[in-house]
Amino acid sequence: MSTHAPTRAHVRGHWPACSGARRPRARAGTPRPRRPVIQRVWPKQRRLLQRRGGRAAPESPPPPPARRHPRAGAGAAGAAATEPGGRSRCGARSRWRLEPRGAGAAGSQLGQSKDYALPNASWSQDMLDLYNRFLDMTKDGLWKRIPSYNNILDHIPGKLTYEKRKDTRLFLRSIDAEGAGFEYVMFLNTSEKRVVCLFQPGSYLEGHPGFAHGGSIATIIDSTIGSCAISVAGKVMTANLSIDYVNPVPLGSVVLVDSKADKVEGRKVFLSCKMQSVDGNTLHAEATALFIQLDATKAQKQQASCQ
Amino acid sequence: QVRRGVQGLFRTLQCVKRSGGLLTVCLSRSIQAAGSQLGQSKDYALPNASWSQDMLDLYNRFLDMTKDGLWKRIPSYNNILDHIPGKLTYEKRKDTRLFLRSIDAEGAGFEYVMFLNTSEKRVVCLFQPGSYLEGHPGFAHGGSIATIIDSTIGSCAISVAGKVMTANLSIDYVNPVPLGSVVLVDSKADKVEGRKVFLSCKMQSVDGNTLHAEATGKDVLRVVGGCWALGWELLGRCQNFPISGA
């Protein structure tokens, strides 16, 4: 017995004989020290907690890098990344849980482009008040809010005519930084042949120090008048634009661009436009324009010759 | 710092053996590098990788014309305050940008250089619209055309009459400008009546065959302003600036 080679069978542990006493044994009366448990809260659980409005959602390890769903466009990835809480990384997976966070977010989840003609953090109080006032007017059905995307092809109903070129952008939506470029929304009144644009020039539109560039004023006037002409006469192109600059527009201020179609003569559409401050006291610019209705075959020929 | 700039120049001169276009880019990059090392703002009116061959050829042609001294290349910065000689008048606001230099991506926005001829009261602008200036599919936005015309005419008016502000701009769009093509914007001052300056401008393709836009003479006028710092309302009270060449 005792002359045997000394075994270590009495030693607790697993084979081969090794001491398994790694965990500190609790003394009588004292609770056994517990290892801190890392609570992993997956995004789904975190969203449920947030929605229930219970205790604050505990911190979770950073989620895996966002993978773009094949059906989500470029706008969707951008929109999902910037939304606080990262509600959805993929387009289709969380489609069933659509929340009314705004038409833009919903659209991006369904694989559509992001609508920029919606309020964002850079909008001033004047802009928001004016926007809400016009939004109330849309409820009657007379006025309609025109959505705005960063590619011209999204504005054209028959999108499949041209192959979508990913590298171009609509000029008014070319500046990425929120609030630094053109912040605008357009409202259309078909019966009055009128388009009203709420415009807030950002800091990247500077011409004279502190004021918007004359070309940026021309651009927004051209766009507003163009939308009016398109609503009246279909596919059109600018033939003449004449702008009288009355008062310079300070950067960050809100202006109302009011355009209407005066008359239509055959293929010519005559329009006029006024740019006023929110209170109506200051006239910033006045413009008249002539647009020509495009012949469908000519437009296609031009397109073909340039490609 | 000046030494580093000189070293940069020497290194780029070593690639003189490459083709003419690349040489221009190398030299211009060295000029830009030297300038930025000396603490100045970056001059964007210089060739970069996004310029097409047409643009580079035209640029070199005008650069040769500057050697006589008649023509002068106008530098272009991304903040308006860098263009004004008395820069210390305003505290430099870091968050604003000149509209034509607001788009960061190289070649995606306005790629342009302006050349001034003081004796002829003429400013010529070489313009290549980038892909972020789209209006109709494949063509430049009417507003971007208006912007470049406004800027060119403005430079001409400033060279003629000092501090000015646009009062009227009337543009006839004749042919649309395809994205990526090079156009020549030729503006000149027609007459000066007291505080008003009348100018006209033509936008043509490189070969001169296609007229893209015209800004008519009698409608385009500028009012010679007084002092920017005082603001628009006080313009009437400011004294007229003497009309003299730049």
Structure description:
- Chain B: This is Acyl-coenzyme A thioesterase THEM4.
- Chain B: Belongs to the THEM4/THEM5 thioesterase family.
- Chain B: Residues 138-210 form the Thioesterase domain.
- The structure is a homodimer.
- The longest helix of chain A is centred in the last third of the chain and has 20 residues, at 214-233.
- In chain A, β2 and β3 form a beta hairpin.
- Mean pLDDT of chain A is 77; it is low at 72-110.
- The termini of chain A are far apart.
- The first copy, chain A, has a 7-stranded antiparallel sheet, sandwiched between helices.
- Chain A is α+β, with helices and mostly antiparallel strands.
- In chain A, α2 (74-82) crosses α3.
- Chain A is built from 6 helices and 7 strands.
- Chains A and B meet through α5, β4 and α6 of A and α4 and β4 of B.
Question: Care to give the gist of this entry?
Answer:
2 copies of one chain form a homodimer. Chain A has helices at residues 43-52, 74-82, 103-109, 125-138, 214-233, 296-306, and strands at residues 143-146, 182-189, 194-201, 236-245, 255-265, 268-277, 283-293.
Write down the Rg of chain A.
31 Å
Most extensive chain interface and residues per partner:
A-B, 51 and 52 residues
| Straight-line distance between termini of chain A | 98 Å
- SSE series of chain A: HHHHEEEHEEEEH
> Which structural category do the helix and sheet elements of chain A fall into?
alpha+beta
Number of E-state strands of chain A: 7
Helical content band of chain A: 10-25%
Major sheet of chain A: size, sense and barrel closure? 7 strands, antiparallel
Number of helices of chain A: 6
Widest sheet: strand ordering of chain A = 1-2-3-5-6-7-4
Beta-strand percent range of chain A: 15-25%
The poorly predicted ranges of chain A are 72-110
Shape of chain A: elongated
| Overall pLDDT score of chain A | 77
